[in-house]
Design goal:
Fumarylacetoacetate hydrolase, domain 2; about 425 residues; alpha+beta; 7-stranded mixed β-sheet; 26 strands; about 20% helix
């Protein structure tokens, strides 16, 4: 069952954690889950609240949780949240509701909980799960059109795009948390004016603005997840940057699709923003034009069409070494919105499992690049610079067609709606370092 709006979303709800009130990302209405450590110590499950985090195991030791909520915290051992995500929606909702109770103004539990707060700036935040599998989709129709026009101007969309949620299996081992440096990859690159490829550093390194989707209980091999039940298997969301070496990609991707051009690094924001936190920001799936095909029956569900979309404002910022040296803020490259997704997340789950493929708790989906209808909302430099033909001019006069060493890409997200408290995802950022 899809998460419902309740008292944990109340606009006037306040926390006794002072930094939480009005926090751009983590007010009391959010309460995302993650894994942290302090000074190289043990990795522990935590929840973010304002500029603080709560060590959940320490909170459990003070008898702050009972029944289903206590059981949810009990399985958060070993420095990963896979077992917690496997429990499904009910324990997650119970724990979030209990956290909301004990963190709000006037809660009698404050005296026990306050000593357990840690400054988030003093914590190292790790990947929240052991990611067994990672699948990247292609749900941004404007991205598909923008890229398709560069290579197939007369037919930018492939014939299957509006029928099937396109995806490919990525490399889980190179998914990294925000803040991890991204080493410029080497690869085979074939220039049009050379007879043979060269093995050199990528010259056309790019970002991709995506959402990440964390899988909950999953399914047994051979047992598809029906579209009407798909929401029960979605444990949360994050930001995701699917770094891409466009020149390596151009040479290698035929006939089997993305490979080394994509698997050298994928950066995620490390906090799991729950479906419950996002309940106020659900929207209808964008209406398809009359001449678009309707989804096949295994992808069609009235409730998903009515509230399967997400109203999430997305932003891409670029900090170059020269901007930083001059004390200038990062340059805003793009602003987009998750409402530009052609397929819903539930449709991705239903399609992925429709052949009997099994998903496991802690698996990760990427939505694919979420671009808007014009270049100011492009989710990649390949689109924004028209494949390098139209370099982007930055506030200090620098130009970028693709990323250079020392550049830092920062993805941000914000959910806003009248009558609801805004929430965010935290940063998803990575800096490019030299191949050498």
């Amino acid at each position: 069952m899809r998460a419902q709006i309740d008292d944990t979303h109340a606009l006037d709800l306040r926390s006794w954690v002072a930094s939480a009130d009005g926090h751009s990302d983590f007010p009391i209405q959010n309460l995302p889950f993650g894994i942290v450590s302090v000074d190289g110590g043990e990795r522990r499950a935590a929840v973010a609240i304002g500029d603080q985090v709560i060590d959940l195991a320490a909170a459990r030791a003070t008898d702050l949780f009972a029944d289903v909520a206590e059981a949810a915290v009990r399985v958060m051992a070993g420095g990963e949240l896979n077992a917690f995500l496997a429990l499904g929606a009910a324990p997650r909702r119970a724990l979030r509701a209990r956290l909301s109770e004990i963190l709000r103004v006037g809660a009698p539990e404050r005296a026990r909980l306050e000593p357990l707060l840690l400054d988030r700036s003093a914590c190292t935040v790790h990947l929240p799960t052991r990611i067994g599998d990672y699948t990247d989709f292609f749900v941004g129709i404007h991205h598909a059109l923008n890229v398709g026009k560069q290579f197939r101007p007369d037919a930018p969309l492939m014939p299957n795009y509006k029928w099937v949620p396109i995806g490919y299996h990525g490399r889980a081992s190179s998914v990294v948390p925000s803040g991890t440096a991204v080493r410029r990859p080497r690869g085979q690159i074939k220039s049009a004016d050379f007879d043979a490829p060269s093995f050199i550093p990528s010259r056309r390194l790019d970002f991709e603005l995506e959402l990440g989707v964390w899988i909950g209980p999953g399914n047994d091999l051979g047992t598809p997840i029906p579209i009407a039940e798909a929401a029960d298997h979605i444990a949360g969301f994050c930001l995701l940057n699917d770094w891409s070496a466009r020149d390596i990609q151009a040479w290698e991707y035929q006939p089997l699709g993305p490979f080394l051009a994509k698997n050298f690094s994928t950066t995620v924001s490390p906090w799991i923003v729950t479906p419950e936190a996002l309940a106020p920001f659900r929207v209808a799936q964008p209406t398809r034009p009359d001449d678009d095909p309707m989804p096949l029956s295994y992808l069609a569900d009235a409730d998903d069409q009515a509230a399967g979309g997400l109203a999430i404002e997305l932003e891409v910022l670029l900090e170059t070494p020269a901007l930083a040296a001059a004390g200038l803020p990062p340059h805003a490259l793009s602003r987009s919105d998750a409402r530009h997704m052609y397929w819903t997340v539930a449709q991705l789950v239903a399609h992925h499992t429709s052949c009997g493929c099994n998903l496991n708790p802690g698996d990760l989906f990427g939505t694919g690049t979420i671009s808007g209808p014009d270049l100011t909302s492009a989710g990649s430099l390949l689109e924004a610079s028209l494949s390098g033909k139209q370099p982007i001019r930055l506030r200090n006069g620098e130009e970028r067609s693709f990323l250079e060493d020392g550049d830092q890409v920062i993805l941000k997200a914000r959910c806003t709606r009248e009558g609801a408290a805004p929430i965010g995802f935290g940063e998803c950022q990575g800096r490019i370092t030299s191949t050498n």
